[in-house]
Specification:
The protein is of the alpha/beta class and 187 residues long. The chain is built from ten helices and four strands; from the N terminus they run H-H-H-H-H-H-E-E-H-H-E-H-H-E. Strands 1-2-3-4 form a four-stranded mixed β-sheet.
């Protein structure tokens, strides 16, 4: 076990080994390979290259999504007006308790989207910002998240604001987050 795995429960260590193919013997080498890629790609805009930060990307495997969607990650801060409003409206809602598999539970009530105040992309960015904060926790890096979306009372007017490119962006993001051990439930 490396210092980066210290503090993980035995169950989570086993899960990291089996499901994420995390090998303590090669972990530092894997991190260095990612660090070397980051250095050669200043266009990606990573501000940190420390081991713990890079390990998040190895576990979450969303480096490529960030790379392909640079605009989604520009000014990814809670002070961005659209993100701030989406967060205030509960996009996403984050439950305090974990599920029985140790995953953090996120909830979205789609009908709460007020498209006059922020865009669907702002909601996606609010979710990404929330995930970036939550994956600081090594247990969540391994165990992942569950996203529950309640589509009841979602209106045609709201749906008409969803362009094919926005939907593609969301689907790609959700595919990446499935690598993050993200499960989706639609209500």
């Amino acid at each position: 076990m490396t210092h980066l795995q210290a503090g993980l429960s035995p169950e989570t260590l086993e899960k990291a080994k089996v499901e994420l193919k995390e090998n303590p013997d090669t972990l530092h080498q894997d991190i260095q390979e990612v660090r070397d890629m980051i250095i050669t790609r200043p266009d990606i805009g990573f501000l940190r290259t420390d081991d713990a930060f890079i390990l998040r990307f190895l576990r979450a495997q969303y480096f490529e999504y960030r790379q392909q969607n640079l605009d989604m990650f520009k000014n990814l801060k809670a002070t961005d007006p659209g993100i701030k409003q989406a967060l205030k409206d509960g996009f996403p809602g984050v439950l305090s308790n974990l599920d029985r598999y140790g995953r953090k539970i996120l909830v979205l009530f789609a009908a709460n989207w007020d498209q006059s105040r922020y865009t669907f992309v702002d909601i996606l960015r609010a979710i990404l910002l929330s995930l970036e904060a939550m994956i600081e926790d090594p247990e969540l890096q391994v165990n992942g998240f569950v996203l529950i979306i309640d589509w009841s009372n979602f209106t045609f007017k709201q749906a008409s604001k969803l362009t094919p490119s926005m939907l593609r962006l969301a689907i790609e993001g959700l595919q990446v987050t499935q690598l993050f051990a993200f499960n989706l439930m639609f209500i």
